[in-house]
Amino acid sequence: MLTAQRRGLSDGGDLRRPAPPRLQSPLKIGSLTVASPVVLAPMAGVTNVAFRTLCRELEQSRAGTVSGLYVCEMVTARALVERHPATLHMTTFSPAESPRSLQLYTVDPDTTYAAAKMIADEGLADHIDMNFGCPVPKVTRHGGGSALPYKRRLFGNIVAAAVKGTSNSGIPVTVKFRIGIDDATHTHLDAGRIAEAEGAAAVALHARTAAQRYSGKADWEQIAALKAQVRSIPVLGNGDIFEAGDALAMMAATGCDGVVIGRGCLGRPWLFGELSAAFAGRPTPTPPTLGEVADIVRRHGELLASHFGEDKGMREIRKHVAWYLHGFPAGSELRRGLAMVTTLAELDALLKQLDGSIPFPTAATGPRGRQGSPAKVTLPEGWLADPDDCSVPSGADIMHSGG
């Protein structure tokens, strides 16, 4: 257990007490050096090249830096190796992106090796992350995602295969996972130890179990426990970072080497500028007014249209608009119109109806994105019988939404 002093609990508070500014050294992930210890978590249908470009632009304009690691949305290793057109399109990077970071979902050491070698041989990315955090039933029922680290030997074989596939390329391999399946079945300490031994360059922990999904509070104590065990590579923390102060508090409380930002940046792509400033000890940029948010929405729509074409780009911007306007007074009719927008011209006309003078409201801070409720994790029959079984689960290499 963390001491009360280390957790910031000496007077009965919780881990999320604001921390003082912490000047941070660059984050070293294998051959890569990241100026700010901040990683954009891969999120399916969100962290495409349009969103990553927007985050980088806003960090540059608001903090004068582009200092974090912005990870592409997850792709399956099998689909990549088979060169599915939609998968290859998902791996699009802008010419300005460096380093280029790609996350793989994988269950099979052989396919993992082939995908990692393909990425290295064809120069598709500069960094590979692997997803063992997805909690959704359609994945865990086949033994994939957050169910897989329970199979220790299989997990180790997969990490080793990715490291072997990128050998002599300078491409570091990192691994993201959860605390475990549920409160009775924790796997993160074994997973961290195994990943470290098999050559991973860093590990990241989403401090929830698969059973929690995105509900409740992340258990930051488990990040500290992982950091205490994994000594030779960076340990990154993920879960409940919605403001720059949350990131500082997590690192102060757990000793972790960096933070991974997921739902906290939904509708707030400027968060990375705030994080960059906070870690550099500079004042946090003033949050945008509603007019500035409207300009950001317009830019996001433009980038999506460029990547997908206008029709699909406008379908994609709809879900983002709800996140952008969270906490702002915008009116139900205008929100409905934005939720059905079909063209950039229509988007422009609707955004002009917003009162641009409205400052960023307190109601727009705090948790956002999906939360849901905890639920029993669906697993293959007999999955928990033998943690050392290294058989590849059948049917698990399907597309899914990362975690």
UniProtKB/TrEMBL annotation:
SUPFAM superfamilies in the cross-refs? FMN-linked oxidoreductases (SSF51395)
Entry function: Catalyzes the synthesis of 5,6-dihydrouridine (D), a modified base found in the D-loop of most tRNAs, via the reduction of the C5-C6 double bond in target uridines.
Cite a single Pfam family from the UniProt record: Dus
Report keywords, A-Z. Answer: Flavoprotein, FMN, NADP, Oxidoreductase, RNA-binding, tRNA processing, tRNA-binding
Q: Which cofactor does it need?
A: FMN
Its family?
A: Belongs to the Dus family.
UniProt region (Disordered), positions on chain: 1-24, 384-403
Q: Which InterPro entries match?
A: Aldolase_TIM, DUS-like_FMN-bd, DusB-like, tRNA-dHydroUridine_Synthase_C, tRNA_hU_synthase_CS
Q: Where would I find the DUS-like FMN-binding domain in this sequence? A: 40-352
Q: What's the name of the protein? A: Probable tRNA-dihydrouridine synthase
Supply the PROSITE patterns for this chain.
Answer: UPF0034
Quote the catalytic activity from the record.
a 5,6-dihydrouridine in tRNA + NADP(+) = a uridine in tRNA + NADPH + H(+); a 5,6-dihydrouridine in tRNA + NAD(+) = a uridine in tRNA + NADH + H(+)
Entry GO MF terms: flavin adenine dinucleotide binding; tRNA binding; tRNA dihydrouridine synthase activity
